[in-house]
Amino acid sequence: MKSHIFGRIQTILAALGAVLLGTFFLAPVSAGAATQSPVTWHVHVGEQSPNGAIQGMQFLPGDIWVDVGDTVHWTADSMEPHTVTFLPVGQLPPPFDPTDPTQTTPTADHMISAPGDFRNSGVLSTLQFAELPSGTVTSYNLTFTGPGTYVYYCLLHGQVMKGTVHVAAAGTAYPHTQAFYDTQFNVGRGATIGAGYRLYARAMSTSSNHHVYVGAVDEAAMAMVMRFMRPTVTVRVGETVDFDWSLNNGDPVPHTVTFGPEPPAPFPVGDPTNFTGGMLSSGVLPTAGPGAHFRVTFNKAGVFDYICMFHDGMGMTGKVIVTP
């Protein structure tokens, strides 16, 4: 009798176990287990030294891997302005035009479904620029709703400042973590700032009272020196100072040499061959040819302060002391 009862108990337990196992394997999996939640990834736009003298021209990380449904959040990390701009496939960035609202204004749609869709952040910077009628923003979000390889540029710095978002199908395992990308940013920022300071030192060593460099860009087009080198010079009445923008490596960073009241627009004003005070400006210096040198002859004793109209907020200012 006992063995018969025990056998029945075993049969019931076995049947119950089969039902439970069937329920476990056949029941629908909860939505939270089947799909991963969308992730927001972080990318830095530009880099700078603590005093702003060195500015970087990189998106860090330059390449990032995300899934459909994820969002990328770009944060301005420098005073130097940049954009995050997705162009039609194969189109290269046009020359930057601060009067063109399609270049300076954020697009209204913060979702993108395919490479080639135009999206623009507006101008990203930690500073506001009076020269930009649309103002600046400090961050930009874009959610990716379709797979593909999305290439973007900074309109201000062209092809030298490029980034890529690689978008895989939803649920694809990520090859890297945000911590991995944060390390890329820290290493890249350190390398860029180090290169900028070395360039700064080289330019200072070859400058003089009569030869002032108007900023500089390193050979890799990653680091910019946003200073006049040397910022304070002393000359005599009748002598000339060459303000030299030849250390640009072909990068079209806009600089001016502007004395006196700031003109309403960055166009040439005054006579640099006979400067005795008042308003004088080089306008935007070209990157090549004779125009890359703005030579000013000082024909009156005094102290003459000058600025770069675009970067004086970063500390790009100077002074010429003219003695009898």
Automatic annotation (TrEMBL):
Keywords: Copper, Metal-binding, Signal
Listed name of the protein: Blue (type 1) copper domain-containing protein
Annotated InterPro entries: BlueCu_1, Cupredoxin, ET_Amicyanin
Superkingdom of the organism of origin: Bacteria
Species of the source: Terrabacter ginsenosidimutans
Keyword set includes Signal: yes
Coiled-coil region list: none
Occurrences of domain Blue (type 1) copper (ranges): 53-167, 224-322
Extent of the signal sequence: 1-33
